[in-house]
Structure formats: structure tokens, C-alpha cells
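Task: fold both queries, return C-alpha cells.
Query 1:
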Amino acid sequence: MHLTTQRLGNTDMAITRVGFGAWAVGGGGWSYGWGPQDDAASIAAIRHAVGRGINWIDTAAIYGLGHSEEVVGQALRAMPVDERPYVFTKCGLIADPARPFDDPIRTLAPDSIRREAEASLRRLGVERIDLYQCHWPDAVGTPVEDTWGAMVRLQEEGKVRAIGVSNFDVPLLTRAQAIAPVASLQPPFSLIQRDAGADVIPWAAAHDTGVIVYSPMQSGLLTDDFSAERVARLAPDDWRRRSPNFQPPALGRNLALRDALRPVAARHGVTISAVAVAWTLAWPGVTGAIVGARNAAQVDGWILAGPLLLTPQDLDEIGRAIANTGAGSGPVHPE
């Protein structure tokens, strides 16, 4: 199928409006895992997504403590070089392999960034990372100027094509931008977690910084069949068990909002998942959305979000549903 593309910030990459998110394919056994995952199913899902036209994959060194990158690397090696998607990954979260369920350390020290980049290149089996991102702001005292200088050096050396950040606020973005342009920003953004629409997304739009939002389906909550019973069946090491959004009272509000999307989905002949993702893409400044899948069928559930254009009436109806359910926080309507 044909998927429209959009230039990512100041880069030379034109990316499809939806990309494959490889967080869950890292599997379980660590602090933010999604429970057990079959690698063959992951590789089949990646190949299916690329076969349907998706041209980028987003992963991170921390996902499965390197396992997600290894799985992505296996999928890439099975593809002809000229058919491979762009590969985006992230640095800055360091786990202790002996204590995988402890929260990782957030460090963006230059020497740590370089070690992570080299390890990611090996796991992915690529000569250059297309987009290298700081995963979370540093928490050990590294000035962002030192961090961003290290990212620029990796780009100058040809180890990475473009550099971006994830989960940065406007002050940090502004400081990084003063050193070198920020190619992309990756904020959490969904119908439930809408706060980025008030600050960092407008900032990015004003600075030619691309935006690829993550968790547009709120980690599965905004999918057609999710339920309170599904929460009870989550694997013991699935991080969502600890998330307030997956527990009462927020869970009830979130599922009520999901149900309010059914008429919109029916009008367009798509899934609720596709509507939820398309809503994030309707915001000015948003380039693309990272959407996870653990099997090929899940890809088919949301891929039509890319070409789906919600009408002003759709957006008004969704805005009223947000207000009526009281789900989440942040602005309710794209400007």
C-alpha cells in the first residue's frame, strides 16, 4: 500500500507518518518490559510492516537490555539492503544486568553516549544509525551542552545520520538548540497523555524540529478490545501493571474515552486504534507516530492511521468525548 511521507525536521529523511515501535519486542525480564515475547513473531511483524510500506523502525538500547536492537538487527539482515527501513535508536538509560528490575540510571555523559552508540551499532548490524536520540534527560549532573556536543561529534564522524532527543522539555531543547539544531523530538503523546501539545510540540514546529510521538495508543489502552479483564491477564513482569492509567479510577475513564471513538472509527471504516493514532497526527508539528506491534495482525490494526484524515467534525466530537470522560490531561483539540 502507498503511505504518504513527510520530511523529518531538518534532515534529508522523508518518513512514513507511522513507524514501527520496537519497545515490546525487547521482551520481558527487565523493569519496563511487556512480558514474554516470541522473537520469530517480532521479526515477522517487522517484515510485515516494512512490506506494507512503513519505512522506519524506532528502538532503544534499554529495550530488553539490548534484545530489541538484536531482534531489529536480525530482521534487517534478512532484507535486501535497498529495501531496509531507516533505523532510529536511543541512548542514556543504563541498567545493571545483575538487577534488571531496578530503574535504569539516566546518564548522558559523553563517554557513556559513545559506548552506547558503539554497542547499538554492533547489535543492529549497521554502519550508521539514521537517528540517534537521547532517551531521557540526564539525572547525574551532566550539562546538556556536554551531552549535545557528544551527539554532534558522533554525527560528524558519520556514526549517526541525525541527532534528536526524547522526553526533553522546552528549556532543555532550547539549550541543545543553541549548540546545534535538534533534528527531532520524541515526546509521549496520545488522547490520554496530551500535555506535549501545549509546549514541546509547538516549540518543535517553530524550530524546524521533527516530532515523532510515542505511545499514541497509550500502550494498548486505546485499542479496540482492551479491557479491565485484559489488565488482569498481563504478565507479572509487564510494566503496565504498575501504571496508574491501567488502574481504577483512571482505567474506567480511559476505556470510556476509547469507547467514544467507536462511531468515528465506524464512519471511516477503520479501527479505533487507527483513529487514536490519526488524532496525534492531526496536530500541527507532528511528523509521525511510533506504534508498537508484537505480531503482524497488530500492524494491520493501526497502519491505516497514516493516510486517515480526521475531519473538523471528528476532532470536535473527540474533543467533547475527552471533556465528558475526564480522561487524561492536556489540550483537547489541535489548533
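Query 1 returned. Query 2:
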Amino acid sequence: MNKKIKVGVIGVGALGRHHTRLYKNVENAELIGVFDVSNENAVKIAEEFDTQVFDTIEALSEKCDALSIAVPATKHYEVATSLLKSGKHLLMEKPLATTIEDATKLVALAKENNVVLGVGHVERFNPAMSFLESRKALTRFIEVHRLAVYPPARPGQHRRGVEVGVVLDLMIHDIDLILSMIDSEVEKIDAVGIPVLSETEDIANVRLKFKNGAVVNLTASRVSQDPTRRFRVFQNDAYISLDYGSHKGLVVKKGKLALAKKEVDLDEYNALEMELTDFIDTVKDRFDNNSQKETKVSGQQGLDALKLAIQIVDEINKYNEQYHFDEIVE
């Protein structure tokens, strides 16, 4: 069947703009249009990428088989609920929702209505992940640094991402990667995080101990001067370093006689295009073959990442209460 999947984008801020741009490159997608609470922004993006502006989510969804949702995290559940009930396939930007209860309901709704629910953990699509996932049983230690500058002010809107703390805003990317690589339950969480410029934690450090002995150390910040994104994995016979700032990775593997080194190119926008292609192809498979195949990052996997993220936030809150870090100093 040659049917193209009619797709729209809800929310065309910084990330939604890239969804709109890249759907033009996805072979099995037909971009129908966009919606944004800022009509001015929607018109700007629609003109840039030669598509249509819709006045309401409902009007856009009526014309579409599938939609990308790139609205603030606190609006995910509200926006997605009616769309899932009406049988629309959704790609939801991370996090899936801001509470476990809401995320659980979204996963259940997708199942009840036999629709695809994907979650935008885009870094699962980077070129090094297939290597890491194929060798996940060998993972012993992971160290992650994800540091960003504080989001700039936006006229008439809150700063991007600060509707949630840095764990749900940034660290959740790495939580999802870790859960895809370590097939074991978390045994212990040590976490600390403090608010600096917002009302929730802006910098956090977490140490996770898994029941299989693997250990992970995560640091996330959105109040740093020098943006850094590094993901380092230590296995019993290999070392993998991913530097998203330079878009380069390095795999060092022990051979019979010496260490073998291989460089990996990390192009995040190609990764996003791969994510969109995976979503559209999964939806098309539902139409063509009545398949029950899920996207590479399913709603359930998004829920699993959210559950661990919320556990981490709870531990941060307990720590701050114990040491009175939650008290405001004038």
C-alpha cells in the first residue's frame, strides 16, 4: 500500500520547528500543518516550511493520521488524552507526562484504542546506541554529564523546560538510555539537587546502584556556563565515550593484541529524522499490515523512564528536607 501518513505538529517552538522541518524529508509522511498557542509563531513556521496553520488542535487532528506533540510537559496529558481517544497516533516529546498517574493513563489509552504512542527520547537513535545495546550485558559503569545554560526568556511564555525540574527536563534523556542498556532493577538511589534560578531543582547529581552490580553516576544542570553533554560507558572489555558537544564518539575495544579504536559521528538532527521516520513507519505498518509493532521508544518505555526520574526527584526532596536545603535563605 502506498498510503502516506498524514501528520501534523502541535507546538512549534524550538523543537517543534525541527519536527516540522524534518517531516518534509520523511518518505512515508505527508505534512498537513501545524498548531501553536501563539498564532504568530505558527504562521512564521508554516511560511518557513510551506505548510498550513490550523486554528485549533481539533481542526488539525481531523485532517491527520498521526501527530507530533511538542508542547510544555505540563500540557502533555491534557493535549494527548482526547487525541488518543479519537484514534490518533502520537509521538510525544519527553517526558511522556509529569506524573506517573497521567503517563500510565496515556499508555493505557493508546493500548485501548490500538494506536502508536512513541516518546521522543531522540538519543536512542544516535549511531553508537546499537553498539551499546548489543553489548548491554557487559556494562559495568556509566558516567554522564549533561550541562546546559539557563533557558532564555520568551515573551509571553515561561522559559523552555522550567515547568519541570532538571531531572524531568534534561536528565530523563540519560535515564532512558541507561534503562535500555542495563537489564536490572535499581537497588539504591543516592540523589541531591538544588534550585538555583527556578522553583525546582536546576542542578542534580545521582548515583544509581543496580541489582546486577552496575553503577551509574549522573549529573544534570541547566545553570552552567559551559554546555557539556558527555556519556561514558565502561564495559569489561571496552570503553565508549560520546561527546554530543563535538558530535563525536569514540569506541575503544580490547583486541587480541592491542586496543582497537573507532570514531563515531553523532549528528543529533539526523537522529531526530531517524526518530520521526521510525514513528511514521510504525504507524504505516499498522495501516498496511495491522501490525502491533511499537516505536523504538514506546509509551511503556517512556513511562519506565518517568518512574525512575520521579523516584530520583523524591530522593532529592527527602535529602533537601533532611538537611534543610529546602529552606529559603533571605
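Both queries returned. Flag for query 2: The chain has nine helices and 14 strands.
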